[in-house]
Amino acid sequence: MPKMSQPSALLHSAHKPNRLVRNLGLTFFEAVITRGLNFFLILLLTRTLGPSEYGKYSFIFVAVSVMSALFDFGMENTAVRFSARDKAQMDPIFGLYLILKLGILTIVIVILVLAQHWLFSAFNKSELMVFMPFLIVGLLGESLFFVNDTYCQANQWFQLRAILNIVRFLICFLLIGTLFFYKALTLHWVLYVYAIPFLFSLLFLGQYIKFISAFWKSDLPRTLMTEIVGYQKWMFIYSVANNLLSRLDFLMLGLWVSYAQLGIYNAAVQLCTIIAFLPLVLGKVLLPTLSDLDESQVFHISEKIIPHTLLLVFVALTLIPMSPLAIPFLFGKQYELSIGIFQVLVMAYAASLMSMPFEQALYSLGKPDVLCASRYGQLAVIILLNAILIPFWGIYGAAVSNLIGRLLYLLQTRLHYLRYQQAVCEKKEPQWVVGS
Q: Which distant-in-sequence residues (6+ apart) come within 8 Å of 40 by Cβ?
């Protein structure tokens, strides 16, 4: 990227904090509204379906969430970073992103259809195979909606992004609320909610055609393609571990515990969205904001964010003493086992929140490679701990493994951040970087 002249660079930098604060405000507002609507949906589902049926719903929900994120392979971050840096190539870059995404989805869906008996049997969930059409529609809808969301993020159209997400959740809320009102809130009818993002994404068909057309008509520079491939290589490696970790605890629990236990565990996880959405909010705004800054500016802004993040962590931890009264009141006494799970997971998600400034700074500086070893180390530790603890402690074992893994990742990202910051100050490349 060509260097800006000194006056324009100073003006550009001066506008960054104002834009950052505005975008954070919009994204936080969106998250509060959507998470608020989602919270009421959880109350309706947990109380009406009960732990066992809610556990079945949770299994399909987690499968859709994990696959839609996993099979993006980190291309979202790559598209945002290079679009923010090379704005003239934004549409061709998103055309490449969409073509790759559609190709991957086609392969995944064919495999799901051909291997569905084996896949459901491997998780001891053969009775859920009847819901495969909902899983496929949900995967398509979430994946395509992800492209719209990412394009808004790359352009820093956070107001439009907020409107789209809020409208989507409002439609889901109206559907579930209508089913509840007419006493038709059963597992089968609830799963029709997965058609909403799919139908929503069809409205953007013209935009998808525009992306693909721009890619075919454009000749992306060889140097840019080389950079994209080099960056995406590490994002692919990193994202596999990162997305598996998002709900690895739930997937491994499915091998050992009942649907009722899965429902109790997922109720605690969903309640933790009060905290879990914060790293996502900050990350969505910080990545495009930091990606077109130089190294010193990235560290300058990150250092300002760290104290505020620490304050959010302390606020989040105050939820722990409130949970013994709040959870039975919200979900009913049949979910009392969620209390201990929630308390452990609050600490786990607080650790993830604290690691966010360090992680986003390294992303924006084009260093996803240094995070890969940390994520795979975390993945290995959690798999090992889950295999040991879940057979003995059940859902508590999964929560403890989650906490330990996230604390280790926080420690490692902090160390990487400090080492790279020191190397930048000394104007030399850090010795621990394994790729470029």
A: 173
Q: How far apart are CA 41 and CA 99, in angstroms?
A: 34
| Alpha carbon distances (Å) from 100 to 71, 83, 95, 112 | 10, 16, 9, 18
Residue 254 is classified by DSSP as T
Q: What are phi and psi of 178, to 5 degrees?
A: -65, -45
Radius of gyration of the chain (CA): 22
Q: Which of 383, 382, 386, 404 is nearest to 395 (CA)?
A: 386
Q: Which of 379, 409, 385, 380 is nearest to 397 (CA)?
A: 385
Q: What's residue 14's pLDDT?
A: 43
HSE of 376, CA atoms in CB hemisphere, 13 A? 12
For the chain, list residues with pLDDT below 50: 1-15, 432-436
C-beta of residue 268 within 8 angstroms of C-beta of residue 345: yes
Burial of 115 (0-12, 13-18, 19+ CB in 10 A): exposed
Kindly report, residue by residue over 235-260, the tens digit of the pLDDT.
888 788 878 877 788 888 888 888 88
C-alpha to C-alpha distance for 353 and 197, rounded to whole angstroms: 27
pLDDT digits (tens, 9 = 90+) for 5-17: 444 443 444 445 5
Query: Per-residue pLDDT tens for 309-355?
Result: 899 899 999 999 999 998 888 888 888 889 999 999 999 999 989 99
Q: What is the distance between the alpha carbons of residues 292 and 81, in angstroms, rounded to a whole number?
A: 8
Q: Which two tokens stand for residue 394?
A: 């059940």
Q: What angle do CA 335, 400, 67 make, to 5 degrees?
A: 80
Contact 349, 272 (CB under 8 A): yes
DSSP notation for 154-220: HHT-HHHHHHHHHHHHHHHHHHHHHHHHTT---HHHHGGGGHHHHHHHHTTHHHHHHHHHHHHH---
Helix (H, G, I), strand (E, B) or coil at 73: coil
Q: Which residues, in sequence order, are CB contacts of 217 under 8 Å at separation 6+?
A: 92
Q: What is the pTM of this model?
A: 0.72
Q: Is 206 exposed, middle or buried (0-12, 13-18, 19+ CB in 10 A)?
A: exposed
